[in-house]
Amino acid sequence: MMALSSTKGVVVPVPVLVLAAAAAAIFLYLFVSSPSSSLPTPCSCPTIPPPDTTTPTTPSTRATAKSTGSSTSQRISASKDDIEWVRNQIEANGLHMAENVLRKGINPRTREQQLQDLLQFKGVSHYEGEEAENHTAFPCPGELLVEQHHSYYGEPWAGGRDSFDFLAESTRLTPDSRVLEIGCGTLRVGLHFIRYLNPEHYHCLEKDELSLMAAFRYELPSQGLLHKRPLIIRGQDMEFAKFGNEGMYDLIYSNAVFLHIPDKLVWVGLERLVKRLKPIKGRIFVSHNIKFCSRLGGEACTKKLHGLGLAYVGKHTHDSLLFNHYDIWYEFKRSKI
Ligand SMILES: C[S@@+](CC[C@H](N)C(=O)[O-])C[C@H]1O[C@@H](n2cnc3c(N)ncnc32)[C@H](O)[C@@H]1O
């Protein structure tokens, strides 16, 4: 084999020399042509952090979370920054909120007209085949499809979110909490609890068939909340046995119900529920007024509550930030642990 000898007598074979030269040439080529290989210039630019890929937020909502110093995932009600953001979006899009004029949609109709169309054309799908071939799992009453039930108990429907915000934050609710509502109606408030809580943690006793139909047949399916399996039971006698004995409630509330039912029945309900309320943290919230109690007179009211093992905590008012809505709530807790 041919070899070159150096002056010091080290023998390097020719193929090795050729290989080394080729490697050096390739290295030199890569070094010169690669942009990243250029010599670093001194730079005092701020380093840009990698984008936060954990939550799909827009830059502005990320900034909001930073500026409030709180995690948006923990907050329940709308923050000042949220409200400001809405205001900015309205302004940026040139929307005129103050003008309360009817909109000209493509086909603007009242609920009554929509209902009429639904009846005439057999539902939104305008299904025209034989009824036997109709694969709809359940027929849905037209009045639900046009959302008449959003006005069954007065407006605003959106105020349900306010009530939820207030109650959830007042009781420091977590998804693990257990909640009972008395008279949930068409789920104006309940929907928000169902969405927030773990499956099966929301219970409700409601007497009205049409409202229950609206809840099961329209609201839960349309909001994608069937998987939350709320326990909603038809009844009007403050009978809670069907809810089982498992777990105690962190919150029991009743929105616009106690003022409509006989005082005696309210007391029956409270008596049955005291032991189902968590001893220290548990709260009962009643909206509008507590005439079932105050009608007895201040002292007698307190005494009767105490006899049941309840104590009145106080009155709260809650202003809506978004929906022109105003709530009054009365808070109770267990007096005997
Ligand atoms: C004014 S609505 C309020 C509904 C709901 N809480 C809301 O805020 O939209 C009163 C509700 O209480 C229900 N209700 C009245 N008496 C009841 C009773 N004894 N037991 C259970 N629900 C009752 C009614 O059927 C109705 O759904």
Q: What descriptors fit this protein?
A:
two-stranded antiparallel ribbon; single chain; disordered N terminus; 337 residues; Rossmann fold; SAM-dependent_MTases_sf; binds S-adenosylmethionine; globular; 9 strands; alpha/beta; 11 helices; 7-stranded mixed sheet; 35% helix
Report on the structure:
With 337 residues, this protein is an alpha/beta fold. The protein has a domain at 156-334: Vaccinia Virus protein VP39 (Rossmann fold, 3-Layer(aba) Sandwich). The protein has eleven helices and nine strands. The protein has helices at 14-33, 59-68, 80-92, 111-121, 142-145, 159-170, 190-196, 209-222, 263-273, 291-294, 298-308, and strands spanning 3-5, 11-13, 179-182, 202-206, 231-234, 251-254, 283-287, 310-319, 326-334. The strands form two sheets. Strands 5-4-3-6-7-9-8 form a seven-stranded mixed sheet. Strands 1-2 form a two-stranded antiparallel ribbon. The radius of gyration is 33 Å and the shape is globular. The termini are far apart. The structure holds S-adenosylmethionine (SAM). Residues 180-279 form the Methyltransferase type domain. InterPro entries: Methyltransf_12, SAM-dependent_MTases_sf.
